[in-house]
């Protein structure tokens, strides 16, 4: 068995509904049509694109390692999966290793149910212990957030778009994938208030009232863009070069990340921030202002309050103040 992490792409299969070719490991292809079809079906059934991509990468790397180690699919045993876990430890942090093992375990479950193999060799192999009380997402300070937003030139359409997009992240605690997927019709009136509809991970639909500041920013953007009646069109659209106009194409997550990077650099924000940073900033601000953790959990569409707690950075402010008391 090799002690190195192998990344290989041997066979390629075009699968409807999956963007780009799907890598078919040699070990799977060698087992015939049943194994191949079940392997493909496993990934087709994963709706979330990010999860599917991560699982494809994990499975591809594992089977490439098995191939180099001289294993066939029926020959893979728990000891081999455990040995691969030790290889992963040399390259990845604990959360990534746990994700890789989860992908392998779920894939083998599919192959067992389909009677491609008799047992799941990954069932008893557990990942390294990992626990954390604080998330790793970098968060702008309150002053940095205000500075960045104030520096956006809202006399331009692109500036109005960028402020509205950041506003959604900040005031709804939304994930960037849910925001870039929004349509104009996902901002809608209920009585005298306007609401936003977010399509979160796992196909969950999450609705919440728009903060009055967010409503002002969205109204200003929609009025300037002239897209309020295009209810099926993308809410946040790409710019047409340097013309100042917008296209009909929706922004992607990388588009939004690059925008935030540009805005941070232009405003002099030194904290390394991205799209997820505004989720942390919003949750922390809400809790700082007396909000309840259970309500923040509902607003963030988290299944567990422990996840929401990872975004609570109030303790960092206390720690900074305490350190400042140290002097000779």
From TrEMBL:
Q: GO biological process: what's one of them?
A: DNA integration
What organism does the UniProt record list as the source?
Skermanella aerolata
In its UniProt entry, what is this protein called? Integrase
Keywords in alphabetical order: DNA integration, DNA recombination, DNA-binding
- Tyr recombinase domain residues are 135-328
Q: Does the keyword DNA-binding apply?
A: yes
What the entry lists under InterPro entries is as follows:
CB (IPR044068), DNA_brk_join_enz (IPR011010), Integrase-like_cat_sf (IPR013762), Integrase_catalytic (IPR002104), Integrase_recombinase_N (IPR010998), Integrase_SAM-like_N (IPR004107), Tyrosine_recombinase_XerCD (IPR050090)
Q: What PROSITE patterns does the annotation carry?
A: CB, TYR_RECOMBINASE
Which Pfam families does this UniProt record tie to the protein? Answer: Phage_int_SAM_1, Phage_integrase
Q: Which domain of life is it from?
A: Bacteria
Assigned protein family: Belongs to the 'phage' integrase family.
UniProt-recorded Gene Ontology molecular function terms = DNA binding
Core-binding (CB) domain ranges (all copies) = 30-112
